[in-house]
Amino acid sequence: MGKLLLLDIDGTLLNSKKELPASAKEALLAARANGHELAIATGRGPFMAKKVLDELKIDTYITFNGQYIVHKGEPIYREALNPETLSAIVEFAEKRDHPLVFLTHEKMASSIDYHPDIDEGIKTLKYSHPAMIEDFHLKNDIYQALLFCEKEEEPQYEEAFTDMDFIRWHRVSCDVVPKGGTKARGIERLIQKTGNSIEDTIAFGDGFNDVQMMATAGYSVAMGNGVEETKKQASYVTDHVDNDGLAKAFRHIGLI
């Protein structure tokens, strides 16, 4: 029976140069040829995953940490953030000089013309600073917001907005998603559609937003470059992404 392989992008598929290692691509295509199905599970939005999706010809993906799910090219689940909650977060953040970036399934926009933290964070994803668009979060379905603040400034948001989760992905930024809006919940929604059982899923990841996915999947692999929490939760810890970690894991667990 083929497995459903759920792959994180940054730090798992893409190495520290944001490139897909040749060894990983070869392993992924070989696993597919062996009857396994490839799917993406990422904090990124669909438009930010497009290059990887196209290169690997993947049409099933969980994006925005479970807020927007597509199966074989068709959206099967979409949950936009509550605009009133977003407006309250904007007001709260503006008082503290913390900018925000809002993401739809097609584009992103900033709450401010320019901020060095946005520039630093977004550049690590190989994107340039998004343009400011007035009231973007009120005129569009926003599936994820990025809040730009440092770690010690984050708890005040958690206390003020108890119906939201703030998941750190960068020194100066965290994803803002509805409480419990995780890749793990995304997997459950996806397998209802694919007909796979949870035992047939294997999750691959490295970040804080992968911990619950690791706990939910039938089997899980943490990258050697992953955070400690992810490694603790994983069934197996492989080598660093820059050291053919993904291909080594595929061989270790017998996918290829």
UniProtKB/TrEMBL annotation:
Gene Ontology MF annotations: magnesium ion binding; phosphatase activity
SUPFAM superfamilies in UniProt: HAD-like
Database matches in InterPro entries: Cof (IPR000150), HAD-like_sf (IPR036412), HAD-SF_hydro_IIB (IPR006379), HAD_sf (IPR023214)
GO cellular component: cytosol
Protein name: Cof subfamily protein (Haloacid dehalogenase superfamily)/HAD superfamily hydrolase (TIGR01484 family)
